[in-house]
Amino acid sequence: MNASPLQAYAPLVLYLLLAMILAGALAAASVLVGWRRPNRAKQLPYECGIEPTGDAREPFSVKFYLIAMVFILFDVEAIFLYPWAYVFRQLHWFGFVEMVIYIAILLVGYIYLWKKGALDWNR
After folding, report:
1. Which of 7, 38, 49, 99 is surrounded by the fewest CB atoms within 10 Å?
2. What is the pLDDT of residues 87-121, one digit of tens each?
3. What residue ranges define each of the domains in the chain, with the CATH number in brackets?
């Protein structure tokens, strides 16, 4: 029990070193053993068998990024409902009131986005 605090991390350091060595060995083996036969079909981007049209570097509308951020925001906020539902019986009324306030804040944000037109896909 007189081991230094650094000795407690020895298994973790050993595990990380072995993982890095294994990853490097597998990458090196892939480069050394793998076949290199490039052709036109392999150089095309994967598009479900459809010939790609246009340039891959076309700019996306800002609307796309706004919708993606709103989706992630509401998705992450919805994840907080799962732990609350798991411990619902232990929380009694206080936990219920807290979650009602939380959902009300989410609803206000949702209504705000709806009124601003951020959820209108046809514009």
Report:
1. 49
2. 888 888 888 898 899 889 989 988 998 898 877 77
3. 5-116 (1.20.58)
